[in-house]
Specification:
The protein is mostly helical. Helices cover 80% and strands 0% of the residues. Helix 1 packs antiparallel against helix 2 and helix 2 packs across helix 3. The chain starts with 6 loop residues before the first helix and ends with a helix.
Length: 123
């Protein structure tokens, strides 16, 4: 298997899932600042556990990814200073720029998950 699933990576995937859930819940509950901040913390920690701390640092500090990194971190800052709508817009843009090259890998990974893979094959 090309991608070994260790316990640490499983915890990282779980934290990413919790981060997405809390962010979604924060948006649904009229941009609740606490839920959005908690979702961001879970998501960032999950990414760091999934790809490794050094790879996460290299992802955010890579010269080609400065635009995405700055916009994501600016969005995180704006959420903390009580501008959640503008912060979410900056974070979404930053995520698209940062992780634009990973979508093909994510698609292959999602096809391997039993229920999700079955659903995605119909679309």
């Amino acid at each position: 298997m090309a991608y070994e699933m260790t316990e640490l990576k499983r915890v990282g995937i779980g934290l990413i899932g919790f981060g997405i859930f809390f962010t979604f819940l924060g948006v649904i509950l009229f941009f609740d600042r606490g839920l959005l901040a908690l979702g961001n913390i879970f998501w960032l920690t999950g990414v760091a556990l999934l790809i490794g701390w050094r790879s996460t640092w290299n992802l955010f500090s890579n010269r080609a990814n400065y635009k995405g990194s700055i916009s994501f971190l600016l969005g995180l800052f704006l959420i903390f200073v009580r501008w959640p709508i503008v912060g979410i817009i900056f974070e979404i843009y930053g995520c698209i720029v940062l992780f634009g090259g990973f979508w093909s890998s994510v698609k292959v990974f999602l096809y391997q998950i039993p229920v999700v893979g079955w659903i995605l094959r119909f679309f």
